[in-house]
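User: Can you help me understand a structure? I only have the sequence.
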Amino acid sequence: MKKVVLAYSGGLDTSVIIPWLKENYDCEVIAVTGYVGQDDDIEAVKKKAISSGASKIYVEDLREEFLTEYVWPGLKAGCIYENKYLLGTSYARPVIAKRLTEIALMEEADAICHGCTGKGNDQVRFELTVKAFAPEMEIIAPWRIWDIKSREDAIEYAKKKGIEVPVTKERPYSMDGNIWHLSHEGGDLENPWNEPKDDLYLIITPPEKAPDTPTYVEIQFEKGIPVAVNGEKLGAVELLEKLNNLGAANGVGIDDIVENRLIGMKSRGVYETPGGTILYKAHQELEYLTLDRQTMHYKELVASKYTELVYDGMWFTTLREALDAFVDVTQETCTGTVRMKLYKGNCVVAGVKSDYSLYSEDLATFEESDYNQGDSAGFINLFGLPIKTKAMLMKKSNK
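Assistant: Let's start by predicting it. Here is the structure, written out as tokens:
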């Protein structure tokens, strides 16, 4: 093996992988960093990769693609894993792995390497994407084969190699960040009885420390896609950054979940997703106004399957593309404005309007209207006919 392309973040795992690859494969290592909005010093990441032994490093700005081609489709579909997790890492892995594979093919590499553990979901997400674009490419996953057995072992290995890592034994969390979210796993969080420590949150103000007055924000959607905040048209990145700031300041977007991993075990994670939380709740409110009952209820079934595909790393599949086609039809009328109230961790609707609203005040009012209430009698007779028929049969047979 002469050349290996590594998915490089500059964190603990990938920092120690570079010297490990060179030791065990005697190969050239090319690092690739997918920039999806993580709060990293990119210049420092570049220098660190080279000083650790990489021959070169690519830094790819994938933020716009990440949001418009991955997050927004999931938002339109209504994807929420196990009613809490807004899939921040799940969306990011396929866009990063796709670009990683493109560079590996361009560099004529012999293999692709990633720093995912053998216990997690990310190994599946990375490798399924590689298989979709380079089915014959060899994949190296050090955590499945090396002698390092724990994060403490990895920290000690880094010290021996003179590599600085952002993880200490005092703060041993495994974190994944992008413009959509920041996740925390490991350390004291491994016991679900432990409440997250005060200093865990790096983005969101703890709700009890948030302002004592609410903040109102208006979000405009066009065909299910957010396009403006408080009347200001913004690109995807700028729009989410603005909502992140508003949500974080008001303590919005913290989720603590013991989730079911794809590989069979449960894991505990704490997620910070301020802007994403606002967008999901606002989008849902707009759908309440613009979707009919049958479409909304069936879309809930589609959302469940779509979410499973995203979480399981099956983004580049025919089924996901087919579900996108269904979702896009449902979003044709999902255009309008939603006003949200942010207050000490709460995010609630404060108003919604749309030119495609199916809500009729004349029909719903408790005052006099053109609706003929007598029509409901015939409807109930027909709707309840199977129930009535069975009851009469049971009575006749004395059961």
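Now, to help you interpret it: The longest strand covers residues 28-35. The chain is about 40% helix and 20% strand. Let me know which part you'd like to focus on.
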